[in-house]
Amino acid sequence: MTDIPAWKDGDTDASFTDRTIPARAGAGLKPSHVDRILQDDYRIGFLEVHAENYMGDGGAPHRALTAIRQNFPLSVHGVGLSIGSEKGLDDEHITRLKRVVDRYEPGLVSEHLAWSTHDLSYYNDLLPVPYDRKTLDRVCSHIDRVQEALGRKILLENPSTYVQFEQSSMSETEFISEIARRTGCGLLLDINNVFVSATNQKYRPLTYLSEFPLEKVEEIHLAGHATDIDDEGDALLIDAHDRPVDDEVWKLYDIVIGQMGPVPTLVEWDNDVPEWPILRREAMRADEILERRAANYLLGSRHAAAG
Amino acid sequence: MPRPDSNSEAAKTVRTVTLGRFSDALLDPEQPTPAGIVGPDGKKADKRFDVYRNNVTVSLVGALAEIYPAVHRLVGDDFFRAMARTYVRSEQPKSPLLFRYGDDFADFLEGFEPAKKLVYLPDVARLERAWLDAFHAADAPPLDPAALAAIAPDELAEQRFKAHPATRVVCSRFAAVSIFSANRSGADLSGIDPAIAEDGLVTRRDFDVEVRTLPEGAAAFLQALVDGNTLGEAAEAAVAVAQKFDLAAAIGAMLEAGAFTAIATKD
């Protein structure tokens, strides 16, 4: 594993307690849900925010997140670091991320295997990288820099992809395994992304999962996808985050949890955001699977074992 | 997951795509899919690449619609999306902080021929930009009126004030403030004469952004104070544009709105 702690031990003047993310279901936090979540009898396991939404100087977003953080463990998920970037990372953005992490003391911090900025333009999308040696070296050095600046381990998320690069010389699972091995980062396994990419790139999701280093996975993402077709009429799935999690993705999730034991699991819903009870229903479905599998998982949680 | 096909790699030269090539094609529909971007088994990937093109454009147009909701409603969804697509193609965000996107959208609207008839639209956009900047501005307690009351009357004119981080003054030759306020509150615009010039003050005492219409001269007065001038200088600037400028009323309004946080120490 790694000697970089998930959060700094001995940080005794912490303003928030309870920072460890439980192996339960969490939800992506939407401003319109904050009051409902705080008042709800159902206590969600944790909440996750996009770091960039809390990089403003002050105002209502910080007030809402402070109230949430005083009541729940929090995970911070970056969407703007552009770790796959060809032209280096933005120091100013790393500093902003550090400010969010220092202020809210999240249990987990994650980012994407993707790029979103090139030549100062930010495209607001998670764009794909080629799986070759040069990109591997670059991504590893970027993750090293981020972990060093934050003073903690980050998790890297597998992408949804629609295309391949001819220059790729490794599979995605080889590429991600090597990054985790070299940098000591943890992994965020997005099972919807696995299903979307596997369908789009014509491989079996279970083959991908059997090659994925599950022992480094510290969080799972679930989300809904849209269905389209490509130029030849083959299925083309889009990672839309605008609907419930697909039944096929739930089946894969059940298999993964059966294999690795309970892991913090986030349900994402970012577009056409529904009322809180609809998103809560998705989280409760993940909770059910986690509880059922925990009962069967006689050897106990690997997280508890790993301390 | 299968490894990329090593046989085909040996058979032909691999085409390398830089991320620069990839990004150039993202916002230019005239450009073909970069050579070397393929589907599974090396098949063509035009529609697949279009997913990225679509994601980028739709998400940035969506970001503008969230930043400029009144402009969006005033022109209608189809018109707004077509207009925003034109803007997105020439101006991408310069930061991953999307709420900062579009700070020159109002200038773009000034020159956008199909929207020329809506003369007030650029100023409504300026107010919406100021509103969002105020929403995200740093927290600060507003100036306590007692602090001002404690100053000796003969020293009042020399005082300078520290502007609250949220404070913005927006001047318009049109009824931009009334149009903005009516639109955001869901009221109709029928009683508003767009040709009447209005100045607006955007402030945030705690967490709710407030927008007020300013009386004549008050914009010049407040802007002068924000720029660091003394109360006396600011009052002169106001009288220069509005002879009937009411200083006491303007001071009362600025305190009520929480436009300043403190009396600055003399320089």
Automatic annotation (TrEMBL), chain A:
InterPro entries associated with the record: MbnB/TglH/ChrH, Xyl_isomerase-like_sf
SUPFAM superfamilies: Xylose isomerase-like (SSF51658)
One Pfam family from the record: MbnB_TglH_ChrH
Family membership noted in the UniProt record: Belongs to the UPF0276 family.
Full protein name: UPF0276 protein OOZ53_17355
UniProtKB/TrEMBL annotation, chain B:
InterPro entries reported for this sequence: DUF2063 (IPR018640), DUF2063_N_sf (IPR044922)
Molecular function in Gene Ontology: DNA binding
Keywords: DNA-binding
One Pfam family from the record: DUF2063
Domain called Putative DNA-binding: residue spans: 21-109
Coiled-coil region(s): none
Protein's UniProt name: DNA-binding domain-containing protein
Organism this protein belongs to: Hoeflea poritis
High-level lineage: Bacteria, Pseudomonadati, Pseudomonadota, Alphaproteobacteria, Hyphomicrobiales
